[in-house]
Amino acid sequence: MLVSDVMTRKPVTITGDRPLPEAKDLMMKNSITKLPVLDKGGNLIGIITSNDIKNSGPSDATTLDMFELSYLLNKMTVSKVMVSPVVTVSENETVEEAARLMLDYDIGSLVVKRDELVIGIITESDLFKAFISMFGTRHAGVRATFVMGDKPGVLSSFAKSLAEKNGNIVSLVTADVEEAGMRKVTLRASGISMDDMKKIISDASARLEDIRNV
Q1: Among 75, 72, 29, residue whose Cα is nearest residue 50
Q2: Local structure of 75: helix, strand or coil
Q3: Please, are residues 44 and 26 in contact by the beta-carbon 8 Å criterion?
Q4: Per residue of the chain (214 residues), what is the pLDDT tens digit?
């Protein structure tokens, strides 16, 4: 699955010279929390979030009245609060790489660019939706997690045994484990009973960690 499959296309943007209240209004109007910031030539120069706006306000200890506060906020522009430079990603990048970038940079979104043109934005919520889809979460069946040998042909043999029991793989995800030569597998399959799944796992000399009907 690629970034282009899950990103929000044609994101709402704002220019850096606009006042903060305008950015806040745009977010509320469009039910979003992030705005890519462009210069007058349409080039990406930053990103601003609802938290950035919230944190830009005066402290609770301020002695300014509401009219003075309103005046100051209207004088403050997006460019003064935005985060820059912006971590970006290509539309052709994988969703797992997008997730890695968000984790490594401790951010909740990535602006998607094609060459120098902003064409989308991908957020943590988009990745959650992709995660649900990749794991086949909305499909009924048997879900099993087990540790098996990490050798060529092992999964192929397992899939063959599953097919012989009329099992259909809905999703299959593997992950690293500390044991050398082993991998953890999380599998969701339809058309097969839990008992048959347990036997296939046992016959494959795999160690079952969890199994349930879902």
Answers
A1: 29
A2: helix
A3: no
A4: 999 999 999 999 999 999 999 999 999 999 999 999 999 999 999 999 999 988 876 554 455 555 655 666 667 899 999 999 999 999 999 999 999 999 999 999 999 999 989 999 999 999 999 988 888 888 999 999 999 999 999 999 999 999 999 999 999 999 999 999 999 999 999 999 999 999 999 999 999 999 999 9
124-134 vs 95-105: helix crossing angle, rounded to 10: 140
3-state secondary structure of 214: coil
Instruction: Report the predicted TM-score, pTM, of the whole model to 2 decimal places.
Output: 0.76
Asked if the bond preceding 19 is cis, omega within 30° of 0, the reply is no
* Nearest CA among 163, 160, 171, 167 for reference residue 193: 167
The CA-CA-CA angle for residues 11, 118, 32, to 5°, reads 20
- CA-CA distance, 96 to 3, in Å (whole number)? 9
- Report yes or no: 136 and 191 within 8 Å, Cβ to Cβ: no
Cite the DSSP H helix spans in the chain. 3-6, 20-30, 50-56, 66-75, 95-105, 124-134, 154-164, 194-203
Residue 155 identity: L
